[in-house]
Design goal:
The chain is an all-alpha fold. Among the domains are: 93 residues, Annexin (Annexin V, domain 1, Orthogonal Bundle), CATH 1.10.220; 78 residues, Annexin (Annexin V, domain 1, Orthogonal Bundle), CATH 1.10.220.10. The protein has 20 helices and two strands. A two-stranded antiparallel ribbon has the order 1-2. 48% of the residues are buried. InterPro entries: Annexin, Annexin_repeat, Annexin_sf, ANX14.
């Protein structure tokens, strides 16, 4: 549980509650930005030839990753534009026997219509995370150049902004906020090569409080940021349950694989064992299912199986004295996004209550929040856009702003910019104000400028 509601204000110093940004973002094995102990150029780093199997290649049995290795040039493919504008009305629901519409482009595991990465990664041949292409993790060789991006120029901007007395926070914000996953990775490595220390270390030294938290999390990129947040969720007294829910539930098999491998690489620990140590009883079993990385990712929906699952969910919940938690968990954790969307459409037609409402009435505590997160993501648009807009509002509603939640929800959402655009449209439709104005009303100073800059990148 959260530690004493410590979201309201960052403490003046020292490790605080969950709401306070930690003093150090480094891993036990060294600085995170180096990806491995001793940095890129030492044992197993980027400049060393890989031992045995290439990291980027999925293991036998598959993890939902593309068939070719991450480092290999994939066949060219056009991502294609989504059929409807994000702000437009949804089209008619697809029949259960056909693939569910993908308003953000791509099937599960292929992202949400995010723009393609560099040419060598177009077509989905490299790893994808949060719906966008990302650089292949070590020991795959890093990208040394990117067309249209001058990492050396940005590295020099940051060096000048942090040199001498005082820090030019505005330049740091303007430099980091526009970057995609590949540009951020290249900038981090270029900065360390140029200055002699990691970008993360510089940001920690020059900044403080929520601005530091925002820019450090941003500088880690999509995968690195989630690995850091997982460590944050399980570190110290108490467990930050909302972080576990949002980072581990509803992920593709490839993403689960990347998280487990990345966590072991950075922190030297087995993520499954770490999470298991934070939970107990049936909630532990729920997250073991999620961490198995064995979801059905077939985009085609079997309508007969959907009806069977609807009845199983009802019999295990409202139709039973007591609740069969494991039966419900097994369906919600293992089914594809398209299948869950079909269940969410069929359940109220059959039983006159929404799936998320059933979950809320049958469960309590962390189990309820976790399953509600999955169910709400399947409802409405079926892509979690409505749910994510609601979570952003929840971070700002009521007395005081839950700053840490607001920061990581914005930073994680912004990597997939077409999908983030859809979240912003949904936020405005639901709350009659723009996300930008809502954030401006809840924050101030350079911290506000950083969040607004992230929002304005779309």
């Amino acid at each position: 549980m959260y530690n004493n509601g410590g979201y309201q204000q960052p403490p003046p110093g020292g490790p605080g509650g969950y709401g306070a940004p930690p003093q150090s973002y480094g891993s036990p094995a060294g600085q995170y930005g180096a990806y491995s102990q001793g940095g890129y150029n030492q044992g197993g780093g980027y400049n060393a030839p890989p031992q045995q199997q290439q990291y980027g290649a999925p293991p036998p049995g598959g993890y939902g990753a593309p068939p070719n290795q991450y480092g290999a040039p994939p066949p060219q493919q056009n991502y294609g534009a989504p059929p409807n504008q994000y702000g437009g009305p949804p089209g008619p629901p697809a029949p259960y026997g056909a693939p569910s519409p993908q308003p953000f482009g791509g099937q599960q595991g292929q992202g949400f219509g995010a723009p393609p990465g560099p040419p060598q990664f177009q077509g989905g041949g490299g790893p994808r995370f949060l719906g966008v292409p990302i650089p292949a993790p070590p020991p795959a060789p890093p990208i040394s150049t990117l067309s249209g991006y001058n990492a050396q120029f940005d590295a020099e901007r940051i060096r000048k902004a942090t040199k001498g007395f005082g820090t030019d926070e505005r330049t740091l914000i303007d430099t980091l906020a526009p970057l995609d996953a590949f540009q951020m990775d290249l900038l981090s490595r270029t900065y360390e090569q140029t200055v002699g220390r990691s970008l993360k270390t510089t940001l920690e030294k020059e900044l403080s409080h929520w601005l530091e938290y925002t820019l450090v999390l941003l500088s880690l990129g999509p995968l690195g940021g989630d690995i850091y947040l997982l460590h944050r969720a399980c570190k110290g007294a108490g467990t930050h349950e909302d972080l576990l829910n949002e980072i581990l539930l509803g992920r593709t098999n490839e993403e689960i694989f990347l998280l487990k491998e990345g966590y072991r690489r950075v922190y030297g620990k087995d993520l499954v064992q770490v999470v298991r140590g934070e939970l107990s009883m049936k909630t532990e079993r729920l997250f073991n299912m999620a961490l198995s990385g064995a979801r059905d990712e077939n985009p085609y929906v079997n309508h007969q199986q959907v009806q069977q699952d609807v009845e199983t969910l009802h019999r295990a919940g409202p139709g039973k004295i007591g609740t069969d938690e494991i039966a419900i968990c097994g369906i919600l954790v293992s089914r594809s996004d398209q299948h869950l969307q079909a269940i969410a459409q069929a359940f109220p037609q059959r039983h006159r209550v929404n799936l998320s409402q059933m979950i809320h009435s049958e469960f309590s505590g962390h189990m309820r929040d976790a399953l509600h997160f999955i169910a709400r993501g399947a409802e409405m648009d079926g892509q979690g856009v409505t749910r994510d807009a609601e979570l952003l509002e929840a971070a700002m509603a009521g007395m005081g702003t839950k700053d840490e939640r607001l920061i990581y929800r914005l930073v994680r959402a912004h990597w997939n910019r077409p999908r983030f655009g859809a979240i912003k449209n949904q936020f405005q439709a639901s709350y009659r104000t723009t996300l930008r104005r809502r954030v401006e009303g809840e924050t101030s100073g350079k911290y506000e400028k950083a969040l607004v800059a992230i929002i304005d990148q779309n």
